[in-house]
Please model this.
Amino acid sequence: MSGRFGVVVLAGELSEAMVSDVAPALHRVAGTPAAQYVIDAARRLDPATVVVVGDERGQGREALSGADAFLAGPRELFRSLGECEVTLFVWGDTPLLDSSSMHAVVKRREETRARRAYLTSGDGDDVGVCVETAWLVEQDPRGQSFTAWLVERGESDRSAAATVAAGDEASLRLMNRQALALAEGLVRERIIARHQEAGVTFRDPYSVYVDREVRLEADVVVEPNCYLYGETSVAAGAVIGPGATLRNASIGANSTVQHSVVEDSSVGEGTTVGPYAHVRG
Model:
């Protein structure tokens, strides 16, 4: 892709269907805020800048990382974009949105030379839009209503724009609790598949929950009905479960934890924990 481009992650929009004071983009999926997945995907494109736009309360400022700027509202947006020629706006409540979909819509706008290129779902809903930054500044010099390009536009606006279709999973937005549960299941499947490819055995992957930040070494065995949360790490040869819960735990090589809970603690090599123990720091 030629030229400088920036990415804006919209993370402050509330959803009535969520029945929550927390923006959908900040609800956690496999232990990580949804918007963090979007930020990480954007970073893989090596943009000139990544900006997160939250709400006036500054929700998510402490929970999200990897952005060059976090704005409590849109007023300082254009200053943060600097000299970016184009800007990609994406919703932060799309944890399965991948960098290839983002790349496709930026590339589409470049190839067609359209002022706008929309990233759409199979139902025709927009999950992102890539625009010429200078044109957007002309339309909305104070940066107060740029989300209108994602939410409200007429047919004349659509006819002048290019479109790129994202897959059903990539375009899934967390607009209600059902969508949140669906995203949770899809993300956890991907997490477990990644660990399996790295040499971890799951006896029953459908009964196991593994957060995104959990680290498992090769030849770890995870038995049924286990829950691995937070910044848990498990060394090679350890057997977890059945019925174990680990939260921010460090488990040494060749150890066993069964029918027990380990929280904020370290277990040494070759140690057996349980059954029915509760180890906490």
Notes: The chain has two domains: 5-165, 198-280.
